[in-house]
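Q: I have 146 residues here and want to know how they pack in 3D. Can you give me a structure?
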Amino acid sequence: MSAITQKRGLVPELYVSDIAVSRVFYVETLEFAVLFERPEDGFLYLERDCAELMLDSAEIGRTWIAAPLEKPYGRGISLQIWTEAVEALYARVRESGAGLFLEMEEKWYRRDTDYLGTRQFIVQDPDGYLLRFAEDLGERRTPPQS
């Protein structure tokens, strides 16, 4: 079964102001693969490490926009994307000059009596969407040392 025909859960669709600029950012900087696209509609379907996103031009084709779009479009949304190569991606993002919102950090989050660790950073895409790339550091029973 191809990636396109598999059953999916949530696949966010993000409206973008310039599909060409977003394509370069997501494909060249963040190394998403283009699963398919419809240039006539300003549409891209992307995948990276099993995370899928749709990018849709706010200016071309059919849209479902409930209110006027104001920049930055990404106000109020942050997407976490799991990856196994967060250090390499972080270096690539820094080298590109993309807008880092949060530098690389190691963070432990409490879940009941356990702590879940992540190594993570946040980059802001050209329309203001926050993308948190995270790598799993495992679990532990004791709180992290401060």
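Q: Anything worth noting?
A: The chain has one domain: 13-59+75-140. The helical segments are 19-29, 86-96.
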